[in-house]
Amino acid sequence: MAIACALVLLAATVEIVLDAAREHSPLVPRTPHIAGWLGSLGGERLGYRVFLIALIAAAVAYGLLLALVRTRAQDVGDRTTVRRASIGLVALLNLIVFAGPILISTDVFSYLAYARMGVVHGIDPYTHGPVAIAGHDAVFRYVGHNWLRVATAYGPIYTLLSYPLGLLGVVGGLWGMKLYALLASAATLALTWHVARRRGHDRIFALLAVGANPLYVIYGLGGAHNDLIMLALMMGAVAFTLSDRDAAAGATVVAGALVKATVAVLLPFMILARRRASTVHGALAALVLCALAGYLAFGVHGIDVVSALGRDSAFVSTDSFPNELAHLFGKPGVFPVDHDLLKAALVLIVLHLLYRTYRGYDWVAASGWALLAISVTSTWLLAWYILWPLPLAVVTRDRRLLVATLFVQALFIAHQTSPLFAPVS
Fold first, then answer.
1. Please, what is the average pLDDT of the chain?
2. Domain that residue 361 falls in
3. With 70 as the cut, is the pLDDT of residue 423 above it?
4. How many separate domains does the chain show?
5. Stated pTM of the model
6. Is 10 exposed, middle or buried (0-12, 13-18, 19+ CB in 10 A)?
């Protein structure tokens, strides 16, 4: 049965990637021809129906596989076989998606556009949107229309990390972004394995729960999202605390926040739980050094993370829980007062989690709940946002966090696949 589930996961992923390689699909953003060679292996243009059926099949197989891993392979010999097979499955899923085209999202082209704005055109990506290079750079035609006039919201560490790829041209830079995502995924999975072992959890289950997750593979890695770099740094910080390297842990959280600000939520939980000055010292040292580098490279705009967060928090996506609840209650959408209420609710949730952490609750679980709360209360929800708490959920003893995270992901998938079950008019 476990073998059948693994084969379904592989088949669904191969189907999506091969069909996406045919391009001219609404699910594949306009992109340079980086995976046309896969077209010779078969497949048809990726349509919504095939994609959604493959997504459902992968999700069901993933759920069954996790349930089976929980109940089987207790003797050492069998566990060794399962361990090797699990690592092989996750590696294959990652490599299959890496070999294919960009899936679902145009975000990676924004990353590349911001990099090329800086290193090729000498334009500050923190003060200008990609429209500044319209007609001057081939990457502009691939940038999503929502972001043409929007300056980058990512931290200076990520922007500087992306700059070398801007020198490689559009195709070279795109493969570089895909390689960044693949390496970050490998680091996230290796660190999740390590942390699970150190905390006394099932390493195989932890690896499969993250690395075989359809949203992680298809949406996260398939879109080459920088969230994977943030996750790698997040799990690196957790690993450092297990080795009592608290200064390094604090510094790593800050580094992650200067890739994507969301992960900064871990820091107060870590400080409350560890209660060591070295955590604060490491975080402050990293903040000063990184802020200085950001200021020297981009000026004050490069370190003004708050303004970028405030701007992006006003966006509303059709997949967000607040938007769907608004429609459920007959409202046309989310109003400004709703944004304020959601922010207040998030603050109360975080304060409650901080109090529980102070009283002895696992800070890793508390951080995961906070990340899940951020994604659920956000009016701008994307599939890769609900991946944030997943690596933390598989290394904590509070199994409610994993159940809640997978439940939210299941709701997202149900929302995505609902057109399949709509009555035909």
1. 89
2. 2-107+170-420
3. no
4. 1
5. 0.92
6. middle
- Whether residue 74 is predicted with pLDDT greater than 60 in this model: the reply is no
Say how far apart CA 341 and CA 326 lie, in whole Å. Answer: 13
| 152 within domain boundaries | no
Give me the pLDDT at residue 325, please.
Answer: 76
Q: How many Å apart are CA 362 and CA 270, to the nearest integer?
A: 10
367-371-374 Cα angle (round to 5): 140
Tokens describing residue 272 = 């409350």
Determine the Cα–Cα distance for residues 341 and 95; give it in Å rounded to an integer.
42
pLDDT digits (tens, 9 = 90+) for 37-68: 776 676 677 888 889 999 999 999 999 999 98
Summarize pLDDT for 222-272 with one digit per residue, the tens: 999 999 999 999 999 999 999 999 999 999 999 999 999 999 999 999 999
Cα 38 to Cα 99: distance, rounded to the nearest angstrom: 8
Measured distance CA(182)–CA(97) in Å, rounded:
9
Residue 229 lies in a domain: yes
- CA 57 to CA 245: how far, in whole Å? 42
Tokens linked to 3: 């073998």
Tokens of residue 158, six digits = 């990520």
Q: What is the pLDDT of residues 292-344, one digit of tens each?
A: 998 888 888 777 776 666 666 667 777 777 877 776 767 777 777 777 888 89
Instruction: Give the residue among 157, 153, 155, 119 at the shortest CA–CA distance from 139.
Output: 119
- Please provide the distance, in angstroms rounded to a whole number, between the alpha carbons at the two ends of the chain: 39
Identify whether 86 is part of a domain.
yes
Q: Report if residue 15 sits inside a domain.
A: yes
Three-state secondary structure string covering 329-386: CCCCCCCHHHHHHHHHHHHHHHHHHHHHHHCCCCHHHHHHHHHHHHHHHCCCCCHHHH
**DSSP for 168-190, written as a single string:** THHHHHHHHHHHHHHHHHHHHHH
Residue type for position 43: G
209: CB partners within 8 A, 6+ apart: 66, 390, 393, 394, 402
Angle, alpha carbons 82-88-90 (nearest 5°) = 100
